[in-house]
Each structure stands twice: as structure tokens, then as C-alpha cells.
Amino acid sequence: MELLDDPAIPFEDIRQNMVELDTINSLLGGHAVTLKGFRQLVGQHKNLHVCEIGCGGGDNLSVIRKWCDQHGIQVQLSGIDINPNCIAFAREKYSREDIKFICSDYKNHVFNVSPDILFSSLFCHHFKNEELVPMLKWLHEQCRVGFFINDLHRHPFAFYSIKLLTSLSSRSRLVKHDAPLSVLRGFIRNEWRELLERAQVEGEISWKWAFRHLVVCKK
């Protein structure tokens, strides 16, 4: 189990983890992959509601906010996470940004109006395959325009690279423990294809640097 999934982890450990994950996503292309998925669904829309499930520290939503501001898109942003410490960190860090953070299991949240775009980043690998099929169905049912998933490609080079990088540079025990484990729990293309087929959802699967898969599903 990843340490981040333990509800007993202290807030300060969560804080350090969230700070370093934002840095990793910035340097290793995670945020870039999120923006690629988002841009594939935006189309000609100029007013959108975008929601991230498993939002963690909220950095993905902040990146989308900045991109939308630069491109003249009005966007309502919300993030859902079951971990109250993650939500507390996100609310604190992005208190000046108009982002709504909700502490809940995504399955239990009821939207007043369905989001146009739903997405997740580094969230799916926390679940077993039998849990991902209903998640994919939920994402497809709840969104109005489409959804996308940004998650890790399971590969030996990715595993040993992130293990070395975090051992040398990380100050977070969560990052050092969870980052390599996350890669081991990641996916290969055929697994995504099988999951989409089982969920009866059509989607485009593409490989992105650094060792990510981007899954984009349009309604």
C-alpha cells in the first residue's frame, strides 16, 4: 500500500509530499500531459466546468486555471479527494484561486450540474482493476463533454529512474516510498484497452513522456 493511502499520515508529511509531487509533475512532464488531455476536450468551448477526482494537493487544477486565463476561457474548477489532509493543503495553497475543493469519496458526490470535463491524474493506480471498470463508467456517465486520465506507464526504466531520483533529491518519506511503488502499480497500453472494453467506453490511449499514458474519452 502507498503511504499516501494511509489516513493516519500526519498533515506535515502530506504537505511535503504534495509540494514535491507538484515539482515532479512540473519537471517530468506530468502537468504537460494533463494540459494535453484537457486541450483535446476543450474544442470551441469558452465556458466550462472542470472537475478532478483524486485531486490531491490541487496543483493540476491550478495549472488548468492558468492555461484557461491565458486563452480566454471561463472555467469553474472543482477537486474531489477523500483525504482531508490533501484537501486542507489544497485549500490553504490555492486560497486565492477560485477553486472549490471537496472532501469526499468521488462515488458519493452528487453534482448539482454535471461537469463538462472530468479527469484524474496519478489516481487510477491506487485502485484494483475490478474497481477501475465502475470508475470508468462513472466518469463517462457524469461528464457532459468527456473525460481524461493521466497515469503512469509501468516500465523497469521508469521504476529504477524514479527510485534513484527520489532517493537523491527527495526530503519526503512518502515520495521515496510511494513514487517507485506507483510505477509498479501503473499500466501498460493493453491493460487500458481491456479496461475500456470492459467498461464499454470508447477512448484514445497515447503514450506521453515521461512514461505516462493519456486516456481521452469524448462523449
Characterise the protein shown here.
The protein is an alpha/beta fold. Helices cover 47% and strands 20% of the residues. It is built from eight helices and seven strands. A seven-stranded mixed sheet has the order 3-2-1-4-5-7-6, with helices on both faces. Helix 4 (84-93) links the parallel strand 2 (74-81) and strand 3. Helix 5 (129-142) packs across helix 8 (189-199). The chain is globular. The mean pLDDT is 96.
Short descriptors:
single chain; alpha/beta; 219 residues; 8 helices; 7-stranded mixed sheet
How far do the termini sit from each other? Answer: 34 Å
What structural class results from the helix and strand content?
A: alpha/beta
Question: What percent of the residues sit in helical stretches (DSSP H or I)?
Answer: 40-55%
Poorly predicted regions are none
Task: Report the average pLDDT across residues.
Answer: 96
What general outline do the C-alpha atoms trace? globular
Protein topology:
Blueprint: H1 11-27, H2 30-42, E1 47-53, H3 59-70, E2 74-81, H4 84-93, E3 99-103, E4 117-121, H5 129-142, E5 146-152, H6 156-169, H7 173-184, H8 189-199, E6 204-208, E7 212-218
Parallel strand pairs: 1-2, 1-4, 2-3, 4-5
Antiparallel strand pairs: 5-7, 6-7
Helix pairs in contact: 2-3, 5-8, 6-7
Task: Give a brief description.
This protein is α/β, with parallel strands linked by helices. The protein has eight helices and seven strands, in the order ααβαβαββαβαααββ.
